[in-house]
Amino acid sequence: MGRDRTNWCQPIATLHFIKSTMPHLTLEYTDSLPQFNAGETLAALNKSLVASGHFDEIDVKSRAIRLTTYLVGTSTDSHAFIHAKLAILSGRSIQIRQALSESLLHALQASSSKYTDTHLQICVEVQEIERETYSKSTSPNTAKEET
Q: Which CATH superfamily is 11-138 part of?
């Protein structure tokens, strides 16, 4: 039988395994947005997630991926997209997930408002990760047990 990971902190070598609030944010954007500032956008998205009250600042992990090979529709015209995928532990209501999605969408719209000459699609997706199968480790000086 597997171990109950609900509220435990067990040292293994120099690591501790803990329950986490997550989230993981992956931002993909097309290279047809040359002035897109991924770093500033990630900071705005992280602030939005922390402001929601559902995540501790230290638990928000984000990354940006600039896409060089992509196609929007079938045309080679100047099209672009920004796609944010938020992965969170299961258990939050649909209303909370919708609010998180809308909050991230507003932050992305603010970060990309200068692109008026490009057909730009901005999308946000919220995925749930099974709480029972997610594992995380931190170094001992940052490990904390969450309730």
A: Macrophage Migration Inhibitory Factor (3.30.429.10)
